[in-house]
Amino acid sequence: MNPAIVLLFIVVIGFLLFIATRHRPAAEDAGMHRRRIGDGLRHLRALEETYAVMTPALLSQIPDSQVLEAVLANLWAKMRPGLENASEVMRGLSLPRQALYAVYTVTGSLRQHGAAQTLRDEAEWFPQCAQALRALEMDETAALLQSVQAGDAQAAEAYLESFSALDGKGRLVWYVREHVEAFCDEVPSP
């Protein structure tokens, strides 16, 4: 066999393998159901324009697999880049929005940064996150979070495992669907 053809074949196969490992559209386009809380802030930023103003009609059209991304993109649209005014903005929004934000922020920070940094950066959201978890009937998960807040860094991994095992994201989707008007900017008058 001609060595030039063999070399060309190897280069083509190498290129195809490179492309196959670099581009995974299924993971990028799959939505929040394929992402963990704490992943995809850049993806949420891209959705801000679409969901800048949330209405009941818009929220009802969003599939469950994308509802958390849509609600979070709506919240991010209200904040300055860098999220430096996040606490101020969130205090002016509905309690259900604050609860979802608290769970998302604390859980994501624990996953990305660990207990020590989360306690430093997100301490104000721990009580509201624990309260939201109890409202979602995730009492054991809330207790683990309180252990993290009390300084038990080992409890952080158990918290994340419990959150996943009890389908925390699925419960948040249910919560949004049960409190639609609380997650909307414009609610039609009766």
UniProtKB/TrEMBL annotation:
Annotated InterPro entries: DMP19_C
Pfam families recorded: DMP19
Protein name according to UniProt: DNA mimic protein DMP19 C-terminal domain-containing protein
Residue span(s) of domain DNA mimic protein DMP19 C-terminal: 93-161
